[in-house]
Amino acid sequence: MAPAARGAMIYICYGVTKSASTFLYQLTEEILVVSGRSCGRIRQPGSAKLENYFDRISPTFLDRIAAAARGRDVVLKTHGPLDPGVGERIASGAVKASASIRDPREMAMSMADNGARARKLGLLPFAEIHTPADAIHSLDVQMDYFTAWSSVPGVELFTYNEICFSTEAAIRRVAAHLGLTVNAAAVLAPFRDGSIIGQFNVGKPQRYREMDAPTQALFLERYADLYARFNFDAEMPEAPPPVLKPRGALGHRIESTRRYLRRAFLTRSIGIVSPY
User: Which superkingdom heads the taxonomic lineage of this protein's source (predicted)?
Assistant: First the structure.
C-alpha cells in the first residue's frame, strides 16, 4: 500500500437522489479508514442521519469543520445546490468532491418505490410520489444541481452503474482522487452482501426496461442533453447481480443499527458543527 496522502482532507460526495450516492459516500469513508487515516464523524443532535449529510454546504461551514476536525479527514454528503464559494474551493484543490448521476427513468422508478414504502410506513419523504411521472418536478431541480456540481473542474463524476456494478474500479478512482492506493477488494468486502449499504433499494441494472414506452419517451425527450452526455448502459455486469429482497420496517431498523455501530467504531466524533 502506498503511503497515505498528507494533510487532512474534506471530501464532498454530491449526488442526485437514488444515484447510489450514499454507497459512494460509505466507500469513500471506508477508503480513508482502510488507508489508516482518521475519519471524522459530525454529531447531529435530533437527526437520524447515519452519515455526515447536510442539505447545504457553505465555505463558512467548511471552515468550521476544518477547525473542529483537528487533522482528521471528513467526508460530507449532500443532495443540495452548489454554493459558488464551495465550487471555487473545489476548483482550487482545497476541497475534493465527487458527483453521482443515474438514468432519470430509473431514478423516478426508485423514487416511486420509496413513495409506496413511505405511505405504507406512514413516512413523509417520497410519500407524494405515486408514479415515475410524479417525480419529474424533483428531477428537474436535481438536474440543475447536478449540472452545476459536474461543471466544476476537479469534481470526479460517477454513474450509478459504475458505483454498483463496477464497484472495485470506482473504489480505485476515488482512492486516486484522494491521492491514495488501496486494495479495492478489501474496501468492498464489508459491503458485498448489501446489508449495510445505506438507502439501497433494488439494485437492478437496466431497470428502465420495466417502464412503459410512452413514459420512457417523456423522460428521454425531457432530459435529452443528459442522455447525450452519459451512456447509462455502460458498466453493465457480465452476470446479473443478486437482487436483494425488499426490506421491511424491521429490516431497515436492523440495517440502520448495524451501520450506526460500525461507523461509531471506525470513525471519531468531532462534535457538533453547525452548518448555519
Answer: Bacteria
